[in-house]
Design brief:
The complex is a heterodimer of chains A (223) and B (280). Chain A is mainly α and 223 residues long. Chain A has a domain at 140-223. Chain A contains eight helices and no strands. The longest helix of chain A is centred in the first third of the chain and has 41 residues, at 28-68. Chain B is of the alpha/beta class and 280 residues long. Chain B is 51% helix and 12% strand. Chain B has helices at residues 6-23, 33-49, 69-85, 99-114, 131-140, 142-145, 184-194, 211-215, 225-236, 241-274; strands at 57-63, 90-94, 122-127, 170-177, 198-202, 221-224. Chain B has a six-stranded parallel β-sheet with strand order 3-2-1-4-5-6, with helices on both faces. In chain B, helix 3 (69-85) crosses helix 4 (99-114) and helix 3 packs parallel to helix 9. The longest helix of chain B is centred in the last third of the chain and has 34 residues, at 241-274. The chains are: A mainly alpha (223), B alpha/beta (280). At the A-B interface, helix 2, helix 4, helix 5, helix 6 and helix 7 of A face helix 1, helix 5, helix 8 and helix 10 of B.
Chain lengths: 223, 280
């Protein structure tokens, strides 16, 4: 039963947007669908808000169980729950009754902790990329050689020294121009092929979801 | 010293990215076509706004996270300086929770410099969920989606929003993100329906999927990575973190280049020693 209800709502909500797009706006039906569009949009936003709530409940259930049963990694669960509720609490406190303390605590958690941790983790990439370049970028075939030359031109074209190097080597073009040519000709051709394939795939997937043919795990469980 | 030990590579990377910042060297870049186009789109909007009683807004879509701040912030700051210098009012909106707050900090810092007042020169519509649905709803009934700013002020009470009717009053959408898939909805819904010019700013690694959109005219200009920011700063005439970062980026790229060449020379030497170099 649940499977049918979910399939029906999926079909109706998807079909609504197809009809709204396809039907001319001067027809009676097209006009009605266009007028209904903002309300359908609002309903989707409300459902999405419920989905966020469900997500929070799911996270809490999982991590509270881990915490109370003292399962492996319960420290991490405690940190997660404290961070989640701490951030929410201070933001709500700051919004409705803005004392200096609430703002400071929120800034401490968000600006001084969350932001800095995210930046730190991301900045580690520079070290791994440099190390990986040394270990993995070996010219073992003609293909690998072409890829390396392309990568070097793109990298050098991103920096001011690249053009000075091209000038010194008396190349007929600057490396910025060469990089732009690689990106806007070779890369673009490849990107278009990938995008076209991806969009055809997503269209097929969309039709399967719309018609309830997708073997989704939730639907499968319910039978 | 074994040169293949990661710690030496890590130390070299750390030095190459920190020393140029300490030396505060600002480097200039040749202006590339996509960045020039982005600048021209803003200039065009400023010209269109001249003599107009009700100016068209620019929409600054802040969809980046702190992780990509190093590349995106110099781009956005340069653009905000451009908006303020040309008196283009702009609104901040984001579909990532951290974006609008980060953009607001940049707007505040630029506003102090230009003496630009909140609500007159710029405002913050804040964070919204459900990108596709929200954009579509903004197109059909704007005021039901965007009701108040982040301070709780009804948007029609903001001086820059007086007389604002619908998305047709937005003259430019500037989308900044370090993630994929956030530019397409603006192209699919807003540019396709209203022909609103779209400007895009992204991290260096996210540049490649943007070129087909620029070539087909779906977006009107873009700046990629720190190099794009440095070029835009030059065009605006206000060298900042983008131009400062070019020295660090130059050194780091040269280091990676050197490492690749060193590793390959080492491999060639090993093949030559075994006598297998020409058999490959």
């Amino acid at each position: 039963m649940k499977r049918w209800i979910i399939s029906l709502f999926t079909f109706l909500s998807g079909f609504f947007y197809i009809l709204e797009f396809v039907l001319p706006s001067h027809t009676h039906m097209g006009k009605a669908l266009q007028e209904a569009k903002p309300h359908v949009g609002e309903a989707i936003m409300v459902i999405a808000a419920f989905a966020v709530g469900l997500g929070v409940i799911g996270v809490c259930r999982h991590h509270l169980r881990k915490l109370f049963l003292r399962q492996k990694g319960w420290h991490n669960s405690l940190a997660l729950l404290l961070s989640m509720f701490g951030m929410a609490l201070f933001k709500i406190w700051e919004k409705y009754d803005p004392p200096e303390l609430a703002t400071r605590l929120h800034d401490l958690l968000f600006l001084d902790l969350y932001n800095q941790l995210t930046i730190t983790v991301f900045s580690l990439l520079a070290f791994y990329v440099a190390s990986a370049a040394y270990r993995a970028f070996r010219v073992r075939s003609v293909d690998a050689g072409l890829m390396m030359i392309t990568a070097l031109v793109v990298m050098l074209g991103q920096i001011p020294l690249g053009d000075r190097l091209a000038e010194w080597l008396r190349l007929p073009w600057t490396l910025t121009e060469a990089r732009l040519w690689i990106m806007s000709v070779i890369n673009m051709a490849g990107q278009r092929v990938i995008l076209l394939g991806a969009y055809v795939g997503s269209l097929a997937f969309g039709i399967r979801v719309l018609l309830g043919l997708n073997r989704d795990t939730i639907l499968e469980k319910d039978g | 010293m074994k040169p293949n030990q990661p710690r030496w590579i890590y130390m070299a990377v750390a030095l190459s990215v920190t020393l140029p910042f300490l030396a505060k060297i600002k480097m200039t870049m040749p202006i590339s076509e996509p960045v020039q186009k982005a600048f021209d789109v803003v200039e065009k909007l400023a010209e269109e706004n001249e003599g107009r009683e009700r100016k068209k807004l620019a929409l600054l879509v802040a969809d980046w996270e702190p992780a990509t701040m190093a590349e995106i912030h110099p781009q956005v700051l340069a653009l905000i300086h451009h908006f303020m210098s040309r008196q283009i009012p702009f609104a901040i909106l984001g579909f990532r929770p951290t974006g609008p707050g980060l953009a607001q900090d940049l707007a505040h810092s630029a506003a102090r410099e230009w003496n630009a007042e909140y609500g007159v020169a710029w405002c913050n519509w804040g964070y919204k969920t459900q990108m596709d649905t929200t954009i579509q709803a903004m197109l059909t009934s704007f005021h039901t989606v965007i009701r108040e700013d982040t301070q709780g002020t009804p948007i029609q009470d903001l001086p820059m929003m007086v007389g604002f009717k619908d998305m047709g009053d937005i003259g430019l959408v500037a989308e900044f993100t370090g993630s994929s898939g956030l530019l397409q909805p603006w192209v699919e819904f807003v540019h396709a329906e209203l022909r609103t010019p779209i400007l895009h700013g992204c991290t260096g690694v996210m540049e490649s999927p943007v070129y087909p959109m620029l070539s087909s005219g779906q977006i009107q200009g873009f700046m990629g990575g720190l190099s794009g920011a440095a070029q835009y700063e030059q065009l605006v005439g206000k060298l900042g973190k983008g131009s400062e970062g070019m020295a660090a980026q130059s050194l780091a790229h040269l280091l990676v280049l050197g490492l690749i060449l060193a590793a390959n020379l080492k491999e060639f030497a090993a093949w030559a020693a075994k006598g297998t170099l020409w058999k490959r």
